[in-house]
């Protein structure tokens, strides 16, 4: 029996607002002292009322638009009831049957092939707090309680762990480009739930699925899905295919999934409309205005870089790995006027150092203007590429202006033919044997002479002119 893999992803992304979803508490809880960013609203004190954060709604809708979703004019918040110590209200404020958006799609690239993944919906909700288990008791930190989340639900269109990972990476880039979430996995700003099931090839019906909860890295996502596929495959082989949905966890250390509970159905959550928040009415005009404010999205940018700058697919992918890096690269090209040389400098010199130092583009010291000027000086033959590489470390270390370094060190390229001629004459006079051999037909000695002149001029002579002059002298 041939089986195919069916995967759907739910992605939770923390919305990058200043304040929480329903109160004015600071939304940046990472590293803050436990329970220092809380108030009566986000801790669910009696008599308090939640008030939706307008910016969170705007950023959620913009993301939904970027995911090609339709935005109904009418939507509402609902209570999702479950009992857990990290949930001070005793319920989560989420969206059930009327989310802010639905029916979208996103395009991904699989080994160069296009594939469309359906987006069921994007809805808004608030996050729970955090529990830390110590021995026989648990500590509650409510700093994160009330943080706005976007939940992005895909259709079950993914067919392998690799596809799921590529899709998740694309969503991360989209929310980062839109500016709706920093989506820093390390800080838990983006998390994944993956639903996995198998079915016989050729059938349409979906079988009971296992939902792997709370995966917090792309690696865990891929490993957990692959493990789960294998596990279910074995069940099918033994004629014990899953009879009902289940919720499972991922044990990073053991590298295996484990059963948490037989899956709840929507009825278990006793959803009902949130009585303290009026329905959201989203006027078409406002939505259309937000649509015009959307930036160029990662995939479109990637394709434009290939077309406009002639960079390879792979390089375009690297250059658009963050919006800040893509903007930086475009600025360097704009100033230098040479896309190819700019690509080389950004990838081989700058990114190599950034990776080594584990810095982001925003955190390092070479401004796009500064690198752009350096590349332009090389393009204009004001300095050689070799000199460029010699001075770049100082730009990297101290952010020093390239023109200042060149001026201080007197490194400008020598393009004065009289001056170059002096170097050439000296080299030829110093190497009578080589001159003789060259005249006897040993053409490849030209490189030797050029090298000597460059050495004598401390790398500053214009190599093109040096070449030309030596040839002229030796041929005469
Ligand atoms: Zn609060």
Write a concise synopsis of the structure shown:
The protein has 476 residues and is of the alpha+beta class.
Describe the overall structure.
This protein has 476 residues and is α+β, with helices and mostly antiparallel strands. It has helices spanning 54-66, 161-178, 218-237, 284-292, 298-309, 313-319, 323-336, 339-357, 368-379, 385-398, 402-409, 417-430, 432-439, 446-456, 463-475, and strands at residues 3-14, 74-75, 78-81, 91-94, 101-110, 113-126, 130-134, 137-141, 148-154, 190-200, 210-215, 246-251, 256-262, 272-273, 280-281. It has an 8-stranded mixed β-sheet with strand order 5-6-9-1-10-11-12-13. Helix 2 (161-178) runs antiparallel to helix 3. The radius of gyration is 30 Å and the shape is elongated.
Helix-strand layout with pairing:
Elements: E1 3-14, H1 54-66, E2 74-75, E3 78-81, E4 91-94, E5 101-110, E6 113-126, E7 130-134, E8 137-141, E9 148-154, H2 161-178, E10 190-200, E11 210-215, H3 218-237, E12 246-251, E13 256-262, E14 272-273, E15 280-281, H4 284-292, H5 298-309, H6 313-319, H7 323-336, H8 339-357, H9 368-379, H10 385-398, H11 402-409, H12 417-430, H13 432-439, H14 446-456, H15 463-475
Parallel strand pairs: 11-12
Antiparallel strand pairs: 1-9, 1-10, 2-15, 3-4, 3-14, 5-6, 6-9, 7-8, 10-11, 12-13
Helix pairs in contact: 2-3, 5-6, 7-8, 7-9, 8-9, 12-14, 12-15, 14-15
């Amino acid at each position: 029996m041939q089986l195919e893999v069916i995967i759907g992803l739910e992605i939770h992304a923390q919305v990058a607002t200043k304040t929480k979803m329903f109160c004015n508490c600071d939304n940046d809880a990472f590293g803050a002292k436990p329970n220092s960013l809380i108030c009566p609203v986000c801790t669910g004190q009696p008599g308090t009322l939640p008030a939706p954060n307008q910016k969170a709604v705007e950023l959620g809708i913009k993301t939904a638009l970027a995911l090609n979703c339709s935005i109904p004019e009418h939507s509402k918040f609902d209570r999702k009831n479950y009992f857990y110590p990290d949930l001070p209200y005793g319920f989560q404020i989420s969206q059930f049957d009327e989310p802010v958006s639905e029916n979208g799609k996103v395009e991904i690239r699989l080994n160069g092939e296009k594939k469309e993944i359906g987006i069921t919906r994007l809805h808004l909700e608030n996050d729970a707090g955090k529990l830390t288990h110590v021995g026989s008791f648990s500590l509650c930190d409510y700093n994160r309680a009330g943080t706005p989340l976007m939940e992005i639900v895909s259709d079950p269109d993914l067919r392998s762990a690799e596809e799921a990972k590529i899709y998740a990476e694309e969503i991360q880039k989209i929310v980062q480009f839109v500016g709706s979430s920093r989506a820093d996995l390390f800080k838990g700003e983006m998390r994944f739930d993956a639903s996995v099931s198998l079915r016989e090839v050729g059938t349409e019906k979906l079988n009971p699925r296992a939902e792997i909860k709370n995966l917090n890295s792309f690696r865990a996502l891929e490993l957990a899905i692959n493990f789960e596929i294998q596990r279910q495959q074995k069940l099918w082989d033994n004629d014990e295919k899953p009879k009902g949905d289940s919720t499972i966890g991922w044990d990073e250390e053991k590298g295996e999934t484990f059963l948490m509970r037989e899956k709840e159905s929507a009825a278990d959550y006793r959803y009902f409309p949130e009585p303290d928040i009026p329905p959201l009415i989203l006027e078409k005009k406002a939505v259309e205005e937000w649509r015009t404010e959307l930036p160029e999205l990662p995939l479109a940018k990637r394709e434009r870089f290939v077309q406009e700058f002639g960079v390879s697919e792979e390089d375009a992918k690297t250059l658009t790995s963050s919006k800040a890096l893509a903007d930086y690269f475009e600025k360097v090209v704009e100033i230098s006027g040479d896309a190819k040389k700019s690509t080389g400098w950004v990838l081989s010199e700058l990114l190599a150092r950034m990776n080594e130092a584990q810095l982001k583009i925003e955190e390092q010291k070479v401004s796009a203007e500064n690198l752009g000027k350096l590349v332009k000086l090389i393009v204009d033959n004001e300095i050689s590429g070799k000199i460029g590489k010699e001075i770049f470390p100082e730009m990297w270390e101290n952010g020093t202006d390239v023109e200042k370094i060149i001026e201080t060190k007197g490194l400008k390229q020598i393009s004065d033919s009289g001056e170059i001629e002096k170097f050439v004459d000296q080299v030829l006079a110093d190497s009578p044997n080589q001159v003789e051999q060259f005249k006897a037909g040993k053409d490849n000695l030209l490189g030797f002479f050029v090298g000597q002149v460059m050495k004598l001029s401390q790398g500053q002579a214009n190599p093109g002119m040096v070449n030309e002059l030596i040839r002229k002298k030796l041929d005469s």
